Amino acid sequence: MSAPATPRTTPPAKPSASAPSAGTTTPAPISAPAARRSLDWRIRFGALSLIWGFSFLLIKVGTEGYAPFQVTLGRLLSGTAVLAVAMAVRRERLPRGARAWGHLAVAAFFLNALPFSLFSYAELSIPSTLAGICNATSPLWGMALSLVALSEDRPTRRRVAGLGLGFLGVLTVLGAWQGFSGLDFSGTAMALLASLSYPVGWIYVRRTLAGSSSSTLALTGSQLFLGTVQIALVTPLFTSAPDGFPLLPTLAVVALGALGTGLAVLMQYGLVAEIGPTTAQMVTYFIPAIATAAGVVVLGEQLSWNTPVGALVVLAGAALTQSRARSGKARTETQP
Length: 336
Fold this sequence. Notes:
Strand content: under 5%
Number of strands: 0
Shape: globular
Radius of gyration: 19 Å
């Protein structure tokens, strides 16, 4: 939570660089034994998959005690606090210049404030399993948008086939052959719009913040702070103060922010620096499976056959759309 979680905010300035190591925020360990490094990254990879996969369950639990905007606000506050501590420990400097902060404000809206809020509202009426699968469509939206907005992304037969296959999987998940019977259109539309918001933000960032002198961590922390401010201004206009702070929803919101939006970003930076962006981005394909399992086992959500089958088709299509991405380009990662 395709997190998705904040996606990386600063693509590399040169084709040979890869974020986040390009920002020198988390250098890859080079002195540890190879066997130990292998064990360490596999454990962290699995933990990151679980954190982002469980994010949709945490959103569902959070909305049982708080309004959607309040869930988003608590999530951003907790995530910003974690990154602020990390920035202080590493003595990171904040970005300079009104232009950079203006671009970060736009990025915060499309990569944090908008999708986080849409997913929270969506899960008022759709299962967390469906929200997690909708999140997996972000690479498909990103592929479609990049063909229009990014001249360097050229279509290939394999990538176009992946795009078509992925949207066929979406139709399977939604039960198109039975007239979308039993589907909550508003909730599903909001979840799909949330997944579309991520690539819109990625493309904007690639066009405006590529080559920034600030580190990836500094840009991401500043972006989360701006997203927090945006939601803090909106929340009082649409919600009233909560009557209390119910324990389980409160813990869910704090965990969603501290783990799924703060710690997960730091873990992802470490993975990208150690094993490279190509392998690290594979975490994206585990998220819907974990989200589905969590929703069914923990929340008791019902699952029809077309949901997991369609999800597999979506993931296959998404994998094809990313199969020929150049190693130097910024990868698109999703966070719920």
